[in-house]
Specification:
Elements lengths: L16 E11 L9 E7 L22 E3 H11 L3 E5 L9 H9 L4 E5 L11 E4 L17 E6 L2 H11 L7 E6 L6 H11 L4 E2 L3 H5 L3
Parallel strand pairs: 2-4, 4-5, 5-6, 6-7, 7-8, 8-9
Antiparallel strand pairs: 1-2, 1-3
Helix pairs in contact: 1-2
């Protein structure tokens, strides 16, 4: 499902430039597209504050340079990936309409990884929605979800996952991902999926492989 919605800027950016933590070409390590050649654009800025976040350096957008959309699109095109993943941080803190518009003009498939904590914007071929209890999702996200992927550390997270699942389409892929740093979370997820067949297991395969 695609959309293009304009939102107010909540961090320093402009229609032609965005604060970027890093770009890199690797494989998609998680979710339904795991193993796919992917070019990642990691945008700076996040106000969700997950304590176990492995990219806390992305939280403060002022620590990262603004990069032009033209530069980002050219770099993505030269990588020749199957998909371009816009991630963060929390990418929806920015209006993604212009960036995704230029990526689509370059005939690149656009994916979004988001907690959904801010209003939806942009045009995407796939939206991975990973809601967090620390900052509940904005209501605009639910209509655009392709994949619901919930990180699980304890029983409360499982309850949160089921609550979120009731708000997305029945056709949406539903995945539970063990929290990497939490002992026992993998067993908890595996056991739950065996008893609840509407869910799948998502693993951070890039960490097992030792790649970015």
């Amino acid at each position: 499902m695609t959309s293009s919605i304009t939102i107010s800027q909540t961090v320093e950016s402009s229609p032609l430039a965005l604060p970027v933590v890093e770009t890199f070409h690797s494989i998609q390590g998680e979710g339904m597209w795991a193993g796919t050649s992917a070019f990642f654009i990691r945008l700076a800025g996040c106000d969700v504050g997950c304590p176990w976040c492995d990219t806390k350096q992305s939280w403060n957008p002022k620590r990262h340079p603004l990069r032009t959309l033209e530069e980002l699109v050219a770099e993505a095109r030269s990588a020749n990936p199957e998909i371009v993943v816009i991630t963060g941080g929390e990418p929806l803190m920015h209006d993604l309409s212009a960036l995704t518009g230029q990526l689509k003009e370059a005939r690149l498939q656009t994916h979004l990884e988001t907690s959904g904590a801010h209003s939806f914007s942009g045009t995407f071929d796939w939206v991975t929605f990973s809601p967090k209890r620390f900052k509940p999702p904005h209501s605009s996200i639910y209509a655009y979800v392709s994949e619901l992927k919930v990180v699980i550390g304890d029983e409360v997270d499982l309850e949160w996952a089921e609550q979120q699942a009731t708000q997305v389409s029945s056709t949406v892929a539903k995945l539970l991902q063990p929290q990497w740093e939490t002992p026992g979370s993998r067993d908890k997820v595996f056991t739950y999926v065996l008893k609840h067949s509407q869910w799948r297991v998502s693993l951070q395969t890039h960490k097992f492989l030792g790649v970015q």
